[in-house]
Design goal:
Layout (H helix, E strand, L loop, with lengths): L2 H17 L3 H14 L4 H13 L3 H13 L5 H14 L2 H14 L4 H9 L8 H20 L27 H14 L17 E6 L7 H12 L5 E7 L7 H11 L4 E4 L4 H9 L5 E4 L6 H6 L7 E4 L14 E5 L14 E5 L17 H4 L4 E3 L11 H11 L4 E5 L5 H13 L7 E4 L4 H10 L2 E3 L8 H6 L6 E2 L10 H9 L10 H12 L3 H18 L4 H16 L1
Parallel strand pairs: 1-2, 1-4, 2-3, 4-5, 5-6, 6-7, 8-9, 8-11, 9-10, 11-12
Helix pairs in contact: 1-2, 2-3, 3-4, 3-5, 4-5, 5-6, 6-7, 7-8, 8-9, 15-20
């Protein structure tokens, strides 16, 4: 059998295994095929794709560069390289790559726009943040001058940059307004006017729209709000995505439907069909728990479906979108000047805007596990680890010689590797006392929070859901809030718990001192403090019925105006 036939047979078997989602086996067949046909583009492309599927992005990138060197790049390999660089967070390289290809090959208008609208999710230092924002604003100015480009929202959807833009010390009201205008310019469907038909019903028609009504932060934060609304007053419509991950958590929504409490819809794939489905529900109120995390629902929020459209702190940033009327927040979170930071009208609850179920733990920790000293845990997603936070870590490690500081790896281990490189540069001497744990199931996560002596809130964009979960055991969280809601959830939670003198600090030195003081409390004092916090959470933080009463009145008043 000739080498060509051997390569063909192996390649075809690789395709068969790939179609069965047996990616590692498919990879082996493609690699064997490549030995007999090392320059065959179809083999290189599919081998790059299978490495992408198993999250070996570096290997995928090497293979795509190999295609590039052969001067046989295809549209498929170009798009794959864009996705690889996005996944790896190599934004500068991505911009350069698109710039080069614009001059060499015909690529779609989508990528001309993407080049100026993509934003990093990791920074080496504050200077790189400032420079990235500067370049991003220049990109926006460039796009504002662009004429005669219209994209197909079903085929050429660009992820919104508003998510990555949120994780530094800056505000984004004006930037987000500009982004809204640009997307309306490039996607004609976003300017659609939906006829609103008012149907008089005995109950208020309210919709909740999210991709994340599953085992996700958004699902945890908002399930109680949805399930606890009085069904005698409200008809509740839940809009899911086809991307919503199946889970036991997600199945609760469908169980609620069988009980006649809510109605679930999975939105179709075509944008106009999504709009039509939501429109036909004739809603009085449409609630987006977050705007910015899900690309699909971010763009749906541009459409005016009903008179009252509202968002909240699932992603705690203003949208800059005139079709979102209200932002549900709390007097416990906002400052007297907060309204200036929002394009929406603030609605301020007397309580934190959620009904959060107390976590269920089947195997709880014993007291000896709860009173260990010198264990510092930052349980936040790694995108929140701002370069300024490195200073706090360095000072804790210098001043507490017994300190061990723990983080949790990101799913694909990309940010973990980048952080370790940054820490090696900024912390160096004590790097051996920084530990990265593998991701874990929720019960293990909460128990890990319980074993910690103290939790470290990230700067500028802090804890929310994780704080509530950690309060099962009451491990104190040190926090340094700014004037922006994204850093004030811990503060608001302590306020609702009525904790006197919580570890809320105003500067980095106080942060370090407070964390070290808590982590070095004698065993019994630390245990007593944790139990006091947990007891306060049980009384005032979890399953707050008063908020549901308040929320129902907010919705009733809203629908009557």
């Amino acid at each position: 059998m000739s080498d060509v036939l051997k390569a063909k047979k192996l390649f075809e078997e690789g395709i068969s295994q790939f179609n069965l989602n047996k990616f590692n086996l498919a990879k082996k067949y493609f690699e064997d095929a490549l030995k007999f046909a090392p320059d065959r583009i179809s083999i290189l492309e599919n081998l790059a794709l299978v490495n992408f599927k198993i999250q070996d992005y570096q290997k995928s990138k090497i293979l795509l560069n190999q295609i590039d060197k052969l001067n046989k790049e295809t549209e498929k390999s170009f798009k794959m390289m864009v996705n690889v660089l996005l996944k790896m967070g190599d934004i500068d390289e991505l911009k350069t790559y698109i710039e080069i290809k614009l001059k060499k090959i015909k690529i779609g208008d989508k990528y001309k726009i993407l080049k100026d609208l993509v934003y990093p999710n990791f920074f080496e230092n504050e200077e790189s943040i400032i420079e990235s924002r500067k370049q991003f604003l220049l990109g926006i100015k460039n796009l504002e001058k662009t004429e005669n480009i219209q994209l197909d929202i079903n085929k050429d959807l660009i992820d919104s940059p508003v998510f990555n833009l949120s994780y530094d010390q800056f505000e984004n009201l004006e930037i987000n307004k500009k982004i809204v205008k640009l997307f309306k310019k490039f996607y004609p469907e976003l300017n659609k006017i939906v006829p609103q038909k008012k149907i008089n019903t005995k109950k208020i028609q309210i919709g909740f729209a999210s991709e994340y009504f599953t085992a996700h932060t958004i699902g945890k934060l908002y399930q109680g709000m949805i399930f606890k609304l009085d069904k005698k007053k409200f008809d509740i419509h839940i809009f899911h995505s086809q991307k919503t991950q199946p889970s036991e958590f997600n199945s609760k929504f469908y169980t609620a439907e069988t009980l006649g409490n809510i109605k679930n819809y999975v939105l179709p794939s075509i944008f106009d069909d999504k709009v039509e489905l939501i429109k036909n529900c004739n809603l009085d109120i449409l609630f987006f728990p977050e705007i910015g995390m899900s690309t699909e629902f971010y763009f749906l929020s541009y459409i005016r479906f009903c008179k009252n459209q509202i968002t909240s702190w699932g992603h705690p940033m203003t949208t800059g979108n005139e079709n979102i009327d209200f932002f549900l927040s709390s007097k416990l979170l906002e400052t007297p000047e907060s309204q200036k930071k929002y394009s929406e009208k603030l609605i301020l609850s007397d309580y934190l805007p959620m009904y959060f179920y107390r976590p269920h733990i089947s195997k709880t920790l014993i007291d000896d596990e709860l009173k260990k000293q010198n264990i510092y845990l930052c349980p936040q997603t790694l995108i929140k680890i701002h370069p300024h936070f490195d200073v706090i870590l360095k000072k804790i490690l210098q001043n507490d010689k017994k300190a061990k500081i723990t983080f949790i790896k990101d799913k694909e281990n990309i940010l973990t590797k980048k952080l370790l490189i940054r820490f090696k540069k900024n912390i160096s001497n004590n790097l051996d006392r920084i530990i990265f744990l593998d991701q874990m199931k929720i019960e293990d996560y909460i128990n890990t929070c319980g074993r910690a002596s103290v939790l470290l809130d990230t700067l500028y964009f802090g804890a929310g859901n994780s704080f509530h979960e950690s309060m099962y055991y009451g491990t104190p969280t040190v926090s340094m809030p700014t004037d922006n809601i994204k850093s004030r959830i811990v503060l608001g939670s302590y306020n609702q718990m009525k904790i006197d003198n919580p570890p809320i600090v105003k500067n980095i030195d106080d942060y370090v001192e407070s964390a070290i003081r808590i982590a070095n409390k004698d065993n019994n004092s630390l245990l007593e403090l944790k139990k006091f916090y947990a007891d306060s959470a049980n009384k005032r933080l979890y399953e707050n019925k008063n908020f549901i009463i308040e929320l129902e009145n907010i919705f009733i008043d809203m629908s009557m105006n």
